[in-house]
């Protein structure tokens, strides 16, 4: 349990060691910053085991605008709602629109040729089993604020500033 000495040290020795090392540690931390703001949101509560209110879930972006890919092999992100879409061994809601046979009626972009290729590069008549579970690669975006800053640079921009 928290607060108990797990190592079997006597309480006094534990306290003495704790004072020596803990003091140095606290001073080191204190040198960098003070106040609860330094706790990154990913680590949870400032006080361990403290209750924190659950943040409301982020809303998926469903504006139907196809997003630019950040690099050519990126699986495009899903720009529409997928809530309630069944994706099981027996039913694949995604393919009811994105399969080659159905794109004329649905207006959805067809799964590209790589989705028909087995691991030997052989093009099959229908989607390959290794691309069957679409959401293993394709994800929605949400309006959640990023937890950490992102300094991603497009490959077209990389190195340009040095020229
Ligand atoms: C009712 C038809 C329909 C269903 C079902 C559907 N989609 Fe779509 N999807 C579309 C259409 C239409 C677009 C084009 C953009 C838009 O209108 O939202 C699209 C766009 C996409 C794109 C973006 C393609 C690109 O090049 O940017 C991805 C990825 C995608 N869908 C994946 C999925 C996945 C994964 C599922 C299942 C969870 C799914 N879709 C289910 C109709 C559908
Ligand atoms: C193993 C990862 C993976 C899985 C699983 C997968 N995709 Fe993709 N998908 C990709 C990648 C990577 C691309 C972009 C490059 C390419 O076309 O291969 C892509 C591209 C697409 C595109 C854009 C095609 C185009 O020509 O612009 C659509 C639409 C799409 N996928 C739908 C689906 C659907 C629907 C499923 C489920 C049946 C699915 N994908 C399963 C990785 C995946």
Describe the protein in words:
This protein has 163 residues and is mainly α. It has 2 domains: 1-54, no CATH class; 55-163, Flavocytochrome C3, Chain A (Flavocytochrome C3, Chain A, domain 2), CATH 1.10.1130.10. The chain is built from 3 helices and no strands. The chain has helices at 11-32, 95-98, 103-106. The protein is extended and about 55 Å long. The chain starts with 10 loop residues before the first helix and ends in a 57-residue tail after the last helix. Bound molecules: heme C (HEC) (2 copies).
Order of helices and strands: HHH
The CATH topology of the largest domain corresponds to Flavocytochrome C3, Chain A, domain 2
Ranges where pLDDT stays below 50 over 5 or more residues in a row are 1-9, 14-18, 20-31
The number of helices is 3
Structural class: mainly alpha
Q: What is the average per-residue confidence, as pLDDT, rounded to a whole number?
A: 81
Number of strands: 0
CATH H level, superfamily name of the largest domain: Flavocytochrome C3, Chain A
Helix proportion of residues, in percent?
10-25%
**Main pleated sheet:** none
In whole angstroms, the N-to-C terminal distance is: 59 Å
Architecture (CATH level 2) name of the largest domain = Orthogonal Bundle
Shape: extended
